[in-house]
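Hi Y.,

Following your request, here is the sequence exactly as I used it, all 231 residues.
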Amino acid sequence: MNKPLILVVEDDSAVRNLITTTLETHNYRFQQAPTGEAAILEAVSYNPDVILLDLGLPDLDGIEVIRKVRSWSKVPIIVISARSEDTDKIDALDAGADDYLTKPFSVEELLARLRVTFRRLGDSLGETGQGAVFQNGELRIDYAAGCVYLQGRELHLTPIEYKLLCLLSRNVGKVLTHTYITKEIWGSAWDNDVASLRVFMATLRKKIESDPSDPKYIQTHVGVGYRMLKV
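Below is the corresponding structure, written out as tokens. Let me know if you'd prefer a different format.
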């Protein structure tokens, strides 16, 4: 079986060489693109398994590249950018990015993000539709029955808590922004109602986390959103 193919979109040759050398050392296949237009062409031509994307490209803004790729592909996109403001992360994630890594970064962190992405891809390929059972550590969701179990014991969740948990579980390893979650759960009328979302997330955590102050399943990205971790 071939190793995954990764498209590296980065105009800074030093950073691009660091990333590609790391990938080569760990036996990943890769293609390179120094511009946004080249990235789109490479994505169409080679159908990569993951795209590593810098936002500050010389011809197109990376956000525009994400939107263009998302118009025809669901390939995971990990943004690697020097832009560290929450608004930049939110814009990238809302445009369709799956994860966001801020420069400077360690190669260990980059490899860890890739492993999480490939695990999520494997989980999604293994799903069998609405009848699938989601298992993550001691947490189990029977989508068909609408039941949630922790350590074999059924949990009693409110409808909103259950919808939140299902949304996160179907996107394991992916950061979901506040805007995305509220639109998916409540619709546009609840858009950006972050305070209400935090209340429901807190009650959900009390039911599934042994220590809500040090969560194992649901990770908070302050000012951005939430991510379900693969345990």
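Residues 107-126 form the longest helix (20 residues).

Thanks again,
Q.
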